[in-house]
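Tutorial, part two.
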Amino acid sequence: ILVLCVSGMRAETARYSVPEEAERGSFVANIAKDLGLTAEELLARQARLAPEGEKEYLQLNQHTGDLVVREQMDREELCGQSEPCLLRFEVLLESPLQSFRAEVRLTDINDHAPVFLNKEIVLKVPESAMPGTRFLLESAHDPDVGNNSLQRYSISSNEYFLVYTRQRSDGRRYAELVLDRALDREQQAEVTFSITAVDGGTPPRSGTALIRVVVLDINDNMPVFTRTLFKVSVMENSSQDTIVVAVSASDLDAGTNGEIVYSIVQNSEENLQTFKINPGTGQIRLKKPLDYEEKKSYEIDVQATDGGGLSTHCKVEVQVKDVNDNAPEVIITSLSSALSEAAPPDTVVALFNVRDRDSGDNGRTTCELTGGQPFRITLLAADAYALVTSETLDREQVEEYNVTVRARDGGSPALSASKTLLVRLLDVNDNAPTFTQAIYTMVMSENEPAGRSLGRLSATDPDTGENARVRYALVPPPTGTLAAASFVSVDAESGTVRSLRPLDYEKVRAFEVTVSAADGGSPPLSAQAVLRVVVRDENDNAPLLLHPPPDGSAAGELVPRWAPSGYLVAKVVAVDADAGQNAWLSYELAKATEPALFRVGLHSGEVRTARAVTERDAARHRLVVLVRDRGQPSRSATATLAVALVNDFSDAFHELGHDPASGQQPQVAEEEMLTTYLIASLCCVSSLFLLSVLVLTANTLCKARVRAELPPPSPSCYVDGDFASDGVGVGSVGTLSPAYRYEMCLTSGSGRSEFQFVKPILP
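Running the prediction step on this input gives:
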């Protein structure tokens, strides 16, 4: 972009001309043709003029490319006597940004006639003046320049005087009156004629004044200046009444004829406004401060007149010395107030010129930027600069810059001026949204109805506008995974998470979904986070009995009459599908035939004897154990146990076959039938027992050799592995307490060879 812009800054300046006082709308030139552009291109690139001054005298027609007069221009008002009179401006084009310098020269027209400041000029000439004597006349003033300015003087016909037109060093013309024939006061005391100043215009213009020559008596000597030319230099910052120079003249005459009076000849109105002279001393002083930038030199005609009316003149050339009294000016010709933050380095931000009205080192300028900002200044041409970016920009760090351009001249002391440019950065979608948390954890209650708010996601985007507008969504899960996205929804605008349906803690305890936050940029940027939803358990499950089975019938348990206190009768095993406090189970004895005989472990569910069993205790007992969880409200279940107190194994069937709660007596026939069955069963059992003893003996003998080599097992008990398949093992599932294993052992001391339950062996 910089190469394109710089290449468009043409070094040459387009020059045009237009006569002053041209009517509004007058054609000056066709800019489009000179730039090699069509009218359509000129309009598309938004061509415009940037004048050097504050007032716009010209305008550009973007449709035709014509440069026309916008307002009538008076060359004398704009430039005075300066020549050439130039109006400078720049033609600015966009896309890409280009600048072309141009200037229009105002050509003078003859719109002013020469004018004498005094309509009557009085000269006092002694009658003794010799032919050829020259007299300086007041000059006429013509503000036009060139050929349209004053060119010559002429006088009306007379017998004594001729007029000659002379030219000063600055090009201005003045008149000298020359005596052609001796005067005789006695013949003619006064000579009157007219003088005419004519310019070179077409048609020419003229101005006339009357010259009245008064012939004086003889005054032999004229005043004589010490020098005919005085050259002095004055600083432009000199104050009012500062002495410029003191001229001096002498006269050999005595008396009033030798008294000299000094005066400034009215050769220009500007000199009269700027300088004054002391008539007696010849000191020339300033009436007002000088300005080097307005006028660099002055030429003053000083006349010395004695008391007899004789006069002479000299010239005083005043050179104004420049002082560094003008600070540089920073003129912005083009400014891009809004700049994309994605703009690469060397992007042109503004074009500007620096102008200093001083001269020499006082007018030599340099530019710099204040503050550490990502910009720099590039020199395009003499006093033409470009403000460009020096590095990449980031709107999220700095939204706008106040760039201060400072111009400094080379004077002593140096003067400077500053111009502040406001550069705003336009946002580009270069930042993805950012979640405030990588993982969001929210809790929902079990069986909570759909539509309930669980929480809110939050993501921020440092961009602005649509680039910072964040929208939330659930990321679809991979195929074949749990459709957790169907459990919750996310509000796209606010990020509020809501449940879509009730959940069962026992089926889904927690799930995770991926959520995304995308901004509204083009293309959009996004970020992801994990949403973890934990289901909070509710007490919606009652305890489930594993032992005894919950089939409505009482489980039978046998307790020997000799059982001591703390004897394990049975263990109630229950689980709860809930979790936490809702699954903490407690056991209590809700109902018993004899409450003082049994007790239940609060947390273990073990039913034990509260005291030693005695002969007075009833043979049959019915126990109801209540299992309760700790939920709010709590849920419970009951287990029923039928406990029989027996002396030996033969009493077991008889005791278990009767319900202590029943008050009916069996009939005699049924008792006899039962006795028969018992006898038959006893015979079968005895036979099986004898057969088992024989098999056991044989097996023992067979394994004697092996047992001799191995450590013997515990007496009268089977080893751990013998009941691996038949024993009941309860692992730590759900809310069960540590596992128990019950082993059955043959008691060798029993004469009736019955089985007995012994205490559990804890692992």
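The domain at 434-536 is CATH 2.60.40.60 (Immunoglobulin-like). In part three we will examine how such features are distributed along the chain.
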